[in-house]
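Attaching the record inline, Q. Sequence:
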Amino acid sequence: MDSSTLPTQSNMNETPTNADNLAPKSLSENVVPTNSVHGSTENENGVQTIEPNAIILAEALTDKTISWQIHNCKITKKTITQDLPLPFLYHYDSLDESIKATYPLTPALLAQFNTPMTTHEAATLIGINKDALSDPWHVKIIGSLVVFSEALQLAVRLHWTNTGKETQQVYTKNEAEAVVAAFKDWQFFGRVDVLYKNDKQTLVSIDEQQSQPESLLTIDARSNYQQLLPAHALAAIAKLEADKADLPWFDKAILARLE
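Structure, as predicted:
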């Protein structure tokens, strides 16, 4: 994954476009902001500590011993086309080396490097037959899912995509192959909503990038979803991304939804 695809605070409010983005049937859908910082304790030095039996959100989400289930994995936005323009440099870079040697870059071509154009326009500019250039598939798929633990009475709604860019360009023979190729490096991104109904055990989120008391967030037990603060959403996503290879249920659910 390159740095341009990493989630940022600017896209934390990305919202699913489908109104039926439901939680498990036993859980509620309404979302309210969560900004509680209580529920923790302070030691003699005034430093906040976590209750011994507290559930730490990011650690729980990546705990393979918890029986996590995936609910309502869905696609909320989908773009798969060969009709979008690309900067000229993308077209030129896709050429065989033998064609590049025959049609080297001239000052006129260099001046057009960042100009968006179709494959036909690029071929005309270079002076070659259009068949020498391939039409890439432009793929951008956004989706959401709910991961749920009955034992913890905890549900977390996450969002996923194949790229943080406007689209991902994939050179394959057909659409199906393009989608498979595009999702080799899918990622979580955007807002994170938490539904926690266990009032017997404290649930907390930790953002190690912040200083106290902002680093510790207590998520109250409620009957509706609570949106994590952007910094804590990023912390949860970063932990999920770091451990994603060991959490096959996410990959399985998303790839099954794409079929």
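Residues 1-23, 35-46 have pLDDT under 50 and may be disordered. Helices lie at 57-61, 88-93, 97-102, 107-110, 119-126, 175-182, 230-243, 248-258.

More tomorrow.
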